[in-house]
Structure formats: C-alpha cells, structure tokens
Specification:
Length: about 130
C-alpha cells in the first residue's frame, strides 16, 4: 500500500498543481493583453484625427474581447493576436479584473460613438485610466 502511494504521489501533486499553473498562464496572458490595449488607448489619446482615434479604440476592444467576442471587429487589426483569447475571456474567475476590463470595454465603445476628436480623446483617457488601475 505504501509503495503504491509513493508511486502515485508525484502524479497527485501534478494534478493538484495544474489548475494553479493554468491560472498563472491566464494571468500572464491578461497582463500582456491589457498592456497592449493600454498602449492603443494611449495611441488613441494622442491621435491627430478622429479616424485614427477610432481605429486605436477598435484595437483596444479587440484586445479585450478576443476574436470570439461579439464586439470583435475583424475589419480592424488585432494587436493582441497570439497573446491570449481576449483579456476578458482570460480573466474569467477574477471578478475584480473582469469588472475593470468590462468598464474599459464600455468606455472604448463609447469612444467609438464620439463624433469629435476631443470626445474620443476623453474616452481614450478614461480607458487608459481604467486599464492602468489595479
């Protein structure tokens, strides 16, 4: 009996550790995608025209929702390609992060509806502030 336990103990440890390892990988993916989304919110904030500001806000949205998200716009670039499944998707299970990312998504979507550069800049600033909050 003891020999069987000793033989299976490493397998049990690995099985217990896998969920923790998976969470660590998701955290890394979320961090990368939030960093990229933040960079694009900053680019939207610094845009010289409304079209460019809107393009970068689309990039923020694509990073947040991922390619399977209903808000994903395949006509726009996905600067987070290969970084994860979308920051919101990868943050599942972390209620605080999910809430913050959903707030940033709403702000970015509001910015896309802006008809003035100043309005888009204001929304981009809100997105950036929300994404950088911890």
């Amino acid at each position: 009996m003891t020999k069987k336990f000793i033989r299976w103990f490493p397998v049990l440890l690995l099985a217990a550790a896998l969920p923790m390892l998976a969470q660590a990988m998701d955290t890394d993916a979320v961090s990368k995608q939030v960093g990229t989304a933040s960079a694009h919110a900053g680019m939207a904030l610094g845009a010289a025209d409304l079209k460019t500001a809107h393009a970068h806000l689309h990039h923020v949205i694509n990073c947040l929702v991922g390619p399977s998200g209903k808000e994903f716009d395949a006509q726009e670039a996905n600067p987070c390609k290969g970084q994860g499944q979308g920051a919101i998707v990868d943050a599942k299970g972390d209620a605080a992060s999910e809430s913050r990312l959903h707030a940033a998504l709403t702000e970015a979507e509001h910015g896309l509806k802006s008809t003035t550069l100043d309005g888009a800049h204001a929304d981009a600033q809100q997105v950036l502030t929300t994404l950088q909050a911890k």
